[in-house]
From TrEMBL:
Top enzyme class: hydrolase
Keywords, in A-Z order: Hydrolase, Manganese, Metal-binding, Polyamine biosynthesis, Putrescine biosynthesis, Spermidine biosynthesis
Organism: Shouchella clausii
UniProt pathway: Amine and polyamine biosynthesis; putrescine biosynthesis via agmatine pathway; putrescine from agmatine: step 1/1
Keyword Hydrolase: yes
Name of the gene encoding the protein in the UniProt record: speB
Cofactors, names only: Mn(2+)
Superkingdom of the organism of origin: Bacteria
This protein's name: Agmatinase
Family note: Belongs to the arginase family. Agmatinase subfamily.
Binding site for Mn(2+): H112, D135, H137, D139, D216, D218
Length: 292
């Protein structure tokens, strides 16, 4: 079922009618309660869905068609405005339910703090979990201006939950000096600036393991994705992120879930950010979801 039985909004292109028969479930997390610069990512999930209607259903990257993947778009989780703690609890409970039903969870944000409750749910299901984090920002702060629940803290929380040695960050080009020092001292795997090249070296070491993947759209250079809350110059191109997705699709790893966050449509009147995000979601579906 959808969160709202009267839901009449657009769904991701070729979403199926049945939750029960779906192998994957797309769900939106419309929250931007803790952002530190520009709000608006709560509108990201809806715009990604709308942009998907302009996609081809066939991918020349994966050489597959969306008709080959059985997925259901559940709409947006209704989250209580301004209440970060309760919103995170609701997301965690929902992902728990997806995993109990054997679904591949594919979340659309919303701010990056939303990945934190997903990490907790995934770790309960997969005790040997590894996390691949693709982002411009390290997100390794313990708090931001006194708030532990912040979009700048989810990867620090992940390190403390599953062990820093099981967290792999790529494309990082922004953060406090202390964040980079923590990454080095804690033994996490943080790769600055690039994504695809370090992935090639890392993926053989993750062979056979369950892996959760979180992508912040701001890993792209603002020239390719201006519609985000905390844009950072010096990023990768859309082509490079698609290359990284293909590497992940071809790797001998068990991808168990994913999210794409921080699309903030108001800052991109051209819609190129939402258009790119929808294409990345298509490739996630075609490359990372397998039949139960």
């Amino acid at each position: 079922m959808r969160f709202d039985e009267a839901y009449s909004g657009k769904v991701f292109i070729m979403s199926r009618a049945s939750y029960e028969e779906a192998d994957a479930v797309i769900y939106g997390m419309p929250m931007d309660w803790t952002v530190s610069f520009r709000p608006g990512s709560r509108f990201g999930p809806a715009r990604i869905r709308e942009a998907s209607l302009g996609l081809e259903e066939y991918s020349p990257y994966a050489d597959k068609h969306l008709e080959e993947i059985n997925y259901f778009d559940a709409g947006d989780i209704p989250l209580p405005f301004g209440n970060a703690a309760r919103s995170l609890d609701i997301v965690e409970e929902y992902v728990d339910s997806l995993l109990a039903d054997g679904k591949f969870p594919l979340g659309l944000g919303g701010e990056h703090l939303l990945s934190w409750p997903i990490f907790k749910a995934m770790y309960r299901k997969y005790p040997d979990l590894a996390i691949i984090h693709i982002d411009a920002h390290a997100d390794l702060r313990e708090q931001y201006e006194g708030e532990a629940l912040s979009h700048s803290t989810p990867i620090r929380k992940a390190c403390e939950l599953i062990g820093a040695e099981n967290v792999y960050s790529f494309g990082i080009r922004s953060g406090m000096r202390e964040e980079f020092a923590y990454a080095k001292e804690a033994g996490m795997h943080l790769y600055k600036f690039d994504v695809a090249e370090p992935l090639k070296n890392v993926l053989p070491h993750l062979s056979g393991r369950p892996v959760y993947i979180t992508i912040d759209i701001d890993v792209l250079d603002p020239a390719h994705a201006p519609g985000t809350g905390t844009a950072e110059a010096g990023g990768i191109t859309s082509k490079e992120l698609l290359e990284a997705q293909m590497l992940l699709s071809q790797a001998d790893i068990q991808i168990v879930g994913a999210d794409l966050v921080e699309v903030a449509p108001a800052y991109d009147p051209t819609e190129q950010t939402a258009i790119a995000a929808s294409k990345f979601v298509r490739e996630m579906l075609l490359g990372w979801v397998h039949k139960r």
